[in-house]
Write a sequence for this structure.
């Protein structure tokens, strides 16, 4: 089988093995120094790999996907009796003074690496490495634009969790500057995204080769500009009480709703991205029967599911994915690496069913159990309900061996989109699907999760366009894909559609905050079991935190009073 090659983790993992046939061999690649680095396409691709590497965090609570889902109203802390940190985060308490420090430090690592590419590439001449000056210029523009996008990506990650943060946008900028305001931070994010859109090549997704899958492009930047616009204007209006409909720019200008919707319309009409024909085919469970060569998930066979894959329009496995736009790519972990399972999808591992290893759904640590309110209020006629939530008591899911009562905050409902998928190998040993697909030798259940985490998909672009324009077309396109009738536009309608389309994708928490719904989302008591013992559970959201997490205390101390801690912490 083909070995897994993902654009993550170690700089040499993909980039340095893929450049030989792509560029003309016209430069000595040995004896590099800081003065000569960033002067060849190979240098740039290696450096860009380092930028993407900063997405990965050693500490699991700094993993954006885990943190955002624990904070949301759709998921509870869960885990076992010793998993106290998940319960603290879920209940808006800080389990450790540096709970989110890896997110902070890794984001600034990524920003520093992006700064270097932006500055150094601007003066580089790549013409001798390409057959034409046009090709060389396209490479250069893509590199600068991609680095601009990634700098915006990291600042957006910081701003969503921490609020205003220090802005360091040049190699020689001082590193001991004070935190910028919330508005100044978003102005930098917006300016970087706007310039990235203007800089990167106007190339349709269908023209981008599979070998470049995982890189950001112009359309991804447009989509993120929509997300930044909605988050900033919503937060300022509903949390800060300073109503605005404009997203500021660093030069003093701003982007209006019509400006941002025009970017999204360009993405919708010209990007080449499109909705998958069936929502459920976005998730790996739709492929397990094909991969196993037998029916291990009867429901998927009955529904005729067929995975679109996760390597773009021409994947190694699957029919072709035109909906996924930007992802966090994963490989397989190895305890010999310094970061252990950091490069596997820990959201899959941590939210898997605790102490239940079945076929086709494997075990995990039982964090992020599903709030039954979501399930009970979701219309059974919507196929996304069963496509998103695993009820192991339903025997069509192949989960007849399920044993309840193994974890805390257990509700009998689990995340199905990001779940451990497994089946017996040729020798009868139950092994993860991705391990078998890619012929990986290590079968440790903590290291085998190579499912992409989707940061942005085309369905969200359609929903954002509806919300910004106050029109129903995008929202109804998403509904039509689910076989649901069209509805008129209202904010309540878009809230429901986002809840059901994007459940467990790390967006719900930020939607609650920007809508100002975070104040009321956690009311009520939930029936749960804690290691088999019936109990009740409720969450105490603290409005004084304004939807932000604490600045790592180590960073506050190191700043010698320059950083002020967020309110409520």
């Amino acid at each position: 089988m083909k070995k897994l090659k993902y654009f993550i983790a170690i700089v040499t993992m993909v980039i340095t093995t893929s450049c030989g046939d792509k560029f003309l061999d016209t430069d000595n690649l040995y004896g590099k120094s800081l003065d000569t680095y960033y002067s060849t396409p190979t240098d740039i691709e290696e450096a860009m790999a380092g930028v993407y590497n900063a997405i990965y965090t050693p500490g699991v609570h700094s993993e954006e996907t885990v943190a955002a889902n624990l904070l949301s109203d759709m998921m509870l802390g869960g885990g076992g009796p010793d998993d106290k940190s998940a319960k603290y985060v879920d209940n808006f308490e800080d389990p450790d003074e540096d709970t989110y420090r890896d997110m902070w430090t890794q984001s600034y690592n990524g920003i520093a690496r992006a700064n270097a590419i932006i500055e150094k590439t601007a003066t580089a001449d790549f013409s001798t490495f390409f057959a034409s000056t046009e090709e060389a210029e396209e490479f250069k523009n893509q590199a600068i634009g991609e680095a601009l996008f990634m700098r915006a990506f990291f600042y957006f990650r910081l701003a969503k969790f921490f609020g205003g943060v220090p802005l360091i946008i040049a190699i020689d900028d001082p590193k001991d500057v004070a935190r910028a305001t919330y508005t100044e931070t978003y102005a930098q994010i917006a300016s970087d995204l706007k310039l990235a859109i203007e800089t990167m090549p106007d190339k349709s997704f269908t023209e981008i080769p599979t070998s470049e899958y995982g890189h950001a492009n112009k359309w991804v930047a447009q989509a993120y500009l929509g997300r930044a616009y909605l988050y900033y204007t919503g937060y300022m209006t509903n949390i800060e009480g300073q109503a605005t409909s404009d997203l500021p720019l660093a030069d003093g200008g701003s982007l209006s709703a019509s400006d941002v919707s025009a970017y999204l319309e360009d993405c919708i009409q010209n990007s080449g991205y499109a909705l998958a024909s069936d929502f459920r085919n976005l998730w790996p469970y739709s492929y397990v029967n094909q991969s196993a060569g037998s029916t291990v998930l009867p429901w998927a066979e009955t529904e005729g599911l067929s995975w679109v894959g996760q390597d773009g329009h021409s994947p190694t496995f699957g029919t072709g994915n035109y909906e996924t736009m930007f992802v966090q790519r994963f490989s397989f972990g190895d305890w010999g690496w310094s970061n252990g399972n950091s490069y596997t999808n820990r959201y899959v591992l941590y939210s898997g069913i605790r102490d239940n290893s079945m076929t086709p759904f494997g075990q995990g640590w039982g964090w992020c159990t599903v709030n039954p309110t979501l399930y009970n209020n979701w219309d059974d006629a919507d196929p996304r309900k069963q496509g998103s939530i695993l009820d192991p008591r339903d025997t069509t899911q192949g989960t007849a061996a399920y044993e309840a009562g193994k974890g805390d905050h257990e509700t009998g409902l689990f995340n199905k989109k990001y779940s451990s998928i497994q089946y017996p190998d040729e020798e009868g040993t139950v092994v993860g699907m991705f391990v078998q697909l890619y012929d990986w030798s290590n079968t440790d259940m903590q290291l085998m999760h190579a499912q992409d985490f989707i940061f942005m998909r085309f369905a969200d672009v359609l929903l954002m366009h509806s919300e910004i324009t106050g029109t129903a077309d995008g929202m109804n396109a998403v509904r039509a894909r689910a076989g649901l009738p069209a509805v008129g536009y209202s904010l309540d309608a878009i809230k429901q559609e986002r809840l059901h389309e994007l459940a467990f994708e790390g967006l719900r928490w930020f939607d609650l905050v920007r809508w100002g719904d975070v104040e009321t989302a956690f009311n009520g008591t939930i029936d749960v079991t804690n290691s088999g013992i019936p109990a009740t559970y409720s969450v105490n959201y603290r409005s004084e935190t304004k939807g932000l997490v604490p600045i790592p205390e180590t960073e506050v101390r190191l700043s010698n009073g320059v950083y002020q801690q967020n309110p409520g912490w």
